Amino acid sequence: MQPVAPGATGWSQIAWFMVLGMDLELLSTTLEELGEPGFRAAQVWEWTARGATGYDEMTNLPESLRAELAARVPFSTLELIDQAESRDGTVKALFHTEDGRPVESVMMRYRDGRRSICVSSQSGCPLTCTFCATGTMAFGRNLTTAEIIDQALFFRRIEPIDHCVFMGMGEPMMNLDNVLAACDLLPDVGVTNRRTTVSTVGWLPGIEQFNAQDRPVRLALSLHAADPTLRSKIMPVNDRYPLEDVLDACRKHWRETNRKVFIEYVMLAGVNDHTKHAKQLAAALTPHGAFKVNLIPYNPTGTGYDGSARTTIGSFRDTLLAAGVPATVRLTRGQDIAAACGQLVADKLQAAAVSEDDAVMTTAAT
Ligand code: SF4
Fold first, then answer.
1. What CATH number is attached to the domain comprising 340?
2. Same domain (yes/no): 67, 159
3. Rounded Cα distance, 153 and 160, in Å
4. Which of 114, 123, 202, 266 would give a disulfide with 110, using CB separation of 3.0 to 4.6 Å?
5. Is 7 a member of any domain?
6. Cα of 12 to ligand 1 centre, how many Å?
7. 191 in ligand 1 pocket by Cβ < 6 Å?
8. Which residue of the set 125, 129, 250, 341 is catalytic?
9. For residue 120, how far is its CA from the centre of ligand 1 (angstroms)?
10. How many domains in the chain?
11. 317-360 residue pLDDT tens
């Protein structure tokens, strides 16, 4: 789609520098060599944030400058490797960074018009949750701010976006500086902080750092089991940061911001989906008003788990509701395109072993 022509002022040069990330030196050198004024950088960011697909669309830049930038400064830090679109409109993309690290992102289209993206904060993940496709991959590295925001810009070039969740590959709280820097840029791309959610499996130092900043970004905790032994079994991070300490940090977030913390709970058949597990969860989530539970249907991703039956998920939700805990069942999206983060990479690694029909999941890994 065509971007809206931007105005001449009001955009942050700092934002532009942050977007460029690894290319900052190259851009600075290029602009300097070309004798261009400083405001050119802000002009380029305006166009980019509004969905321009390349320098050639930036019509308030001299044509010669557009040509020079196209030849000398890469437009994105990410190279698109694969893209798939689900029957329900979900779009999934697999990128490589400049050093060949895989990165996955998803855009979900909802009937009410929302366009929500799920972005990655790391390539791979060091935390090895046993139900997660990303957790089976080797950890690469933290993504730069540029690599995070370039995921959003990719989808913005398809259509306007308005919600973002950091729930893709990686643990965002382990890369929080770059995640928050991306949050500062997302409003330019169409996603306000109030419509942005950072999800964690319970990396306590990151949650404490998150609590110390004042952006109105939402917090989500992937909890998945209230029983400590079970939680440690499926989420080894629980051994390092026990759930009660993590929940204390979440309660602090709620008290200080008056924003509920989303609790993500993936429904694993015969593992964490019994009525007793729902009662344990309700008992752990006190006060109930501080939390809202999202129950996530799960389908096999080659990790050895099965998803709970719909009726089981419904009963689990009813138990929570009866205990006074707000709870909903998340819509599954992108079931036909391996839309759980980590799945595209995992599928490529196991292409001979995993059929596309088996690659069914919700929109995110965590
Ligand atoms: S669920 Fe999240 S934190 Fe756990 S291994 Fe997967 S990406 Fe990492």
1. 3.20.20.70
2. no
3. 10
4. 114
5. no
6. 33
7. no
8. 341
9. 11
10. 2
11. 999 999 999 999 987 777 676 656 555 555 554 443 322 222 22
The encoded tokens of residue 232 equal: 């440690």
Is there a catalytic annotation at residue 68?
A: no
Catalytic residue among 46, 68, 104, 171: 104
Residue 276: domain span: 79-358
Residues 88 and 198 reside in one and the same domain: yes
pLDDT of residue 21: 45
Decide whether any atom of ligand 1 lies within 6 Å of the 83 Cβ: no
Helix/strand/coil for 82: strand
In a domain, 53, yes or no: yes
Tell me if 299 is assigned to some domain: yes
Q: Closest Cα to atom 1, ligand 1: which residue?
A: 366
Residues 256 and 339 in one domain: yes
Reported pTM: 0.88
Residues 196 and 251 in one domain: yes
Helix orientation angle between 39-49 and 176-189, rounded to the nearest 10 degrees: 80
**Residues 143-156: pLDDT tens digits?**
999 999 999 999 99
Q: Are 271 and 327 in the same domain?
A: yes
Q: Are residues 179 and 140 part of one domain?
A: yes
Mention every residue, 6+ apart, whose C-beta is less than 8 A from residue 273.
Answer: 267, 308, 312, 313, 316
Ligand 1: which residue has its CA nearest to atom 7? 170
pLDDT of residue 98: 92
Q: What is the pLDDT of residue 344?
A: 53
